[in-house]
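For the sake of transparency, this paper describes our internal protein records without simplification. An entry from our holdings is shown next, in its original layout:
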Amino acid sequence: MHDLAPLARFGGLLATELLDVTSDPAALESSGWWAVAARYDGEPAFARFGRVAPAPLPASGRWRGPAPGAWTSSMDRAAYTDGVRRVREHIAAGDVYQANLCRVLSAPVDADADIDALTARLARGNPAPYAGTIRLPGHAVEVATASPELYLRREGTLVESGPIKGTAPTEDELLAKDHAENVMIVDLVRNDLGRLCAAGSVTVPELCVVENHPGLVHLVSTVRGTLPPGAGWPQLLSGTFPPGSVTGAPKSSALRIIEALETASRGPYCGGLGWVDADRGTGVLAVGIRTFWIDRDDPAAPVLRFGTGAGITWDSDPGHEWRETELKARRLLSLASVPEARSTAPAA
């Protein structure tokens, strides 16, 4: 791993020549092109690169994934469905309206595993609008995302978020619960942005639009607002993080419930991943879902991790929510798990 250079890939661009890394979001208002890896739990990493240029994806055959049967889960089916029932108890008690309950899947990988090679497999086998990679050796950041969800887009003073809530194999299988859940989170995102944006500027131009993605469909809404003078990335991140769609409503109560029920750190999963061009006042951050990361807490035994979860409401059926977590993980795990002997085969 020591010979792998820092890099970031987003939107067909490759960023190289690392200049500095900081955890201070004020840096995003300075100058240069920054990769953003804001962990759900833990210190964020903002990395400024000196060179950004169009570049092709690396060869997907370089990825050596774990065996398909090597994955373990931080919560098995019994533990997860019990967690769903406990969230419903909190809803019945009036503590929360909705909470996102997640589990983390893990499998061992070789010490020389390169997250950038996994990015190529994901891009070819599971195209996603906010896909990307951040590799920062020495800063514990090795992340590849195939995220379909916009956390924050900024163009000058205009900001936009695209919360996803509601997932099913097909449009016909979406439930009334999915629509209700989406509206709840839209209200939360409106509230978050409303406290930051100019009075009266927050709108919802799209509500519960069906989007097709590989192997499933999502309900997606759009929330938009205008920043007042003096507000920028530090205020956006402090006022909206973690993203509403992966926490719950009310957010403060959902965060407490999540912390009590989940048994593994989310790491970069459910955080914010993307880029900021401070010179142009633009940037795009994805919600860190459909995201893999390499954990090298034990350098001799690195682990590939992947998070999956579901939003729990009063109408949630525990078995259905477990199956939703499986649906979200299935295609991506199959791509990441392809044995070396098959690694050059065309992605399904």
The chain has one domain: 7-342. The two ends are 29 Å apart (CA to CA).
